[in-house]
From TrEMBL:
<dbReference type="InterPro" id="IPR050778">
    <property type="entry name" value="Cueball_EGF_LRP_Nidogen"/>
</dbReference>
<dbReference type="InterPro" id="IPR011042">
    <property type="entry name" value="6-blade_b-propeller_TolB-like"/>
</dbReference>
<keyword id="KW-0449">Lipoprotein</keyword>
<dbReference type="GO" id="GO:0005886">
    <property type="term" value="C:plasma membrane"/>
</dbReference>
<keyword id="KW-0675">Receptor</keyword>
<dbReference type="GO" id="GO:0060070">
    <property type="term" value="P:canonical Wnt signaling pathway"/>
</dbReference>
<feature type="repeat" description="LDL-receptor class B">
    <location>
        <begin position="1"/>
        <end position="43"/>
    </location>
</feature>
<dbReference type="Pfam" id="PF14670">
    <property type="entry name" value="FXa_inhibition"/>
</dbReference>
<dbReference type="GO" id="GO:0017147">
    <property type="term" value="F:Wnt-protein binding"/>
</dbReference>
<dbReference type="Pfam" id="PF00058">
    <property type="entry name" value="Ldl_recept_b"/>
</dbReference>
<protein>
    <submittedName>
        <fullName>Low-density lipoprotein receptor-related protein 1B</fullName>
    </submittedName>
</protein>
<dbReference type="InterPro" id="IPR000033">
    <property type="entry name" value="LDLR_classB_rpt"/>
</dbReference>
<feature type="repeat" description="LDL-receptor class B">
    <location>
        <begin position="44"/>
        <end position="87"/>
    </location>
</feature>
<dbReference type="GO" id="GO:0042813">
    <property type="term" value="F:Wnt receptor activity"/>
</dbReference>
Length: 179
């Protein structure tokens, strides 16, 4: 799945398959300007920052179990969000401080460091990555991902895929080659 935020005409947090199909709103009320988003892949939770409401909230992958982690002035102007173990990590765009917040109760807000021009944060740790099983976009014997000549996108599950073409090309009738 692909998770993303939108604060155009109607602010929301959404999810869809990697090929863009099955687009679903998972949060569409009491939300104004969702910017940063982070996933807890193990427990299947979506965290987001709402910079207008000065809040960090969480829901499960279906939009249930919603609650506010932290709200208020101490977390104004946040950008970027990452989750690791018991904490959320984010960047305050005013003073460029890296903040750590307990993700279970919003306490223990700590400034860890200051980085010039920081606007995003990521955690790279083996434990944050789920195990990969064989999938429909694996490279075939001819070196083509999922048998697609240009781009392979996972679909509704790891066994299904959709082929797409780079700009200027059209997908052939075989659904795999680009012309």
């Amino acid at each position: 799945k692909l998770f993303f935020t939108d604060y155009g005409n109607a602010a929301k947090v959404e999810r869809c398959d990697m090929d863009g199909m099955n687009r679903t709103w998972i949060v569409d009320s009491k939300i104004e300007q969702p910017t940063a988003l982070a996933l807890d892949l193990v427990n299947k939770y979506v965290y987001w920052v709402d910079i207008y409401l000065d809040s960090v909230e969480v829901v499960d992958y279906q939009g249930g179990k919603r609650h506010t982690i932290i709200k208020g002035r101490q977390i104004r102007h946040l950008c970027g969000l990452a989750v690791f173990e018991s904490y959320l990590y984010t960047v305050n765009s005013d003073n460029l401080n890296i903040l750590r917040v307990n993700r279970y109760n919003g306490t223990d807000v700590q400034s860890l460091a200051r980085l010039d021009n920081a606007k995003e944060i990521h955690v790279y740790q083996k434990r944050t990555q789920t195990a990969v099983r064989s999938h429909a976009c694996e490279v075939d014997p001819y070196g083509m991902p999922g048998g697609c000549s240009h781009i392979c996108l996972l679909s509704s599950n790891y066994k299904a895929r959709t082929c797409r073409c780079r700009t200027g090309f059209i997908l052939g009738s075989d659904g795999r080659s680009c012309k």
